[in-house]
Design goal:
This protein is of the alpha/beta class. It has helices at 26-35, 47-56, 78-81, 98-104, 119-128, 146-160, 168-179, 182-189, 199-203, 239-244, and strands spanning 2-6, 17-21, 40-43, 61-64, 74-75, 90-94, 110-114, 133-138, 211-217, 230-236.
């Protein structure tokens, strides 16, 4: 598999397959939202758009980076989100890096959003689709975020590896890089707002969830979904299918 790792600003053309990485914390939060029962996640272009979507659909749950703000139900923290009941709900998410990265590649044929919590499922889906070339979008720190790059490289390794599951010793160096990253330090020391004490640990839980997360533009055919919005959905990959590819 031919892989490349780029920041959002380095995307000069639409890649055929894009894996957008935001470990701390957008796509860890997204995975937790699905685990708590969310049906879909709408990725908003701006805070204003997120609030407008929430206004049109009062039953939706709106999430943003940073401190709490009027109109938003919670913040971009897996530690805070894990106690919410989101069964059957639509979530609207706007973050500084992750959602921006996903929207930057919205015209790609396949867009996956990932963190360590869905690493294996993401790798399995790439293998099942026989993806020859994959662009990993490293969203944090203008493409230099060590936790995102480490996760991207780990998923690429697992996608190329035919082994049924990643051994702990295989993942350890990648997780160590993420654990000692600038973002982890800022979350642990309270530099960033809207943080739960468990956020870093939750972001480093490898393969916590058995699904990948696929983003695509909605046609607006489904009730309650606005046409043209970028929507993220959980996608379970049958292990046998992935291993047969």
């Amino acid at each position: 598999m031919d892989t490349r790792y780029v920041g959002i600003a380095d995307l000069t053309e639409v890649p055929p397959v894009a894996v957008v990485i935001d470990v701390m914390r957008a796509f860890t939060v997204a995975a937790w939202a699905f685990a708590r029962g969310a049906e879909r996640i709408v990725l908003a272009e701006s805070l204003d758009e997120a609030l407008a979507l929430k206004a049109r659909h009062p039953g939706w749950v709106a999430i943003k980076d940073g401190p709490p703000a009027p109109g938003f139900d919670t913040v971009n923290s897996p530690g805070m989100l894990r106690s919410m009941d989101l069964r059957g709900r639509t979530v609207v998410q706007k973050t500084t890096a992750g959602t921006v990265g996903a929207l930057a590649v919205k015209d790609a044929s396949l867009v996956l959003c990932a963190g360590f919590v869905v690493a294996e499922a993401t790798a399995l889906l790439l293998r099942s689709r026989a993806c020859d070339a994959v662009t990993f979008v490293v969203t944090g720190e203008e493409g230099r975020a060590e936790e995102d790059l480490a996760c991207a490289q780990y998923i690429a390794l697992r996608a190329a590896d035919g082994a049924p599951a990643g051994a702990p010793e295989q993942a350890a160096p990648f997780l160590h890089r993420a654990a000692t990253s600038r973002a982890a330090g800022e979350l642990a020391t309270g530099v960033r707002a809207g943080v739960h004490p468990d956020d870093v640990a939750l972001c480093l839980e490898r393969d916590r969830f058995p699904f990948a997360m696929v983003a695509s533009r909605d046609a607006g055919e489904e009730a309650g979904v606005d046409a043209g919005v970028m929507t993220l959905r959980a996608f379970e990959v049958p292990v046998a299918q992935a291993e047969d590819v």
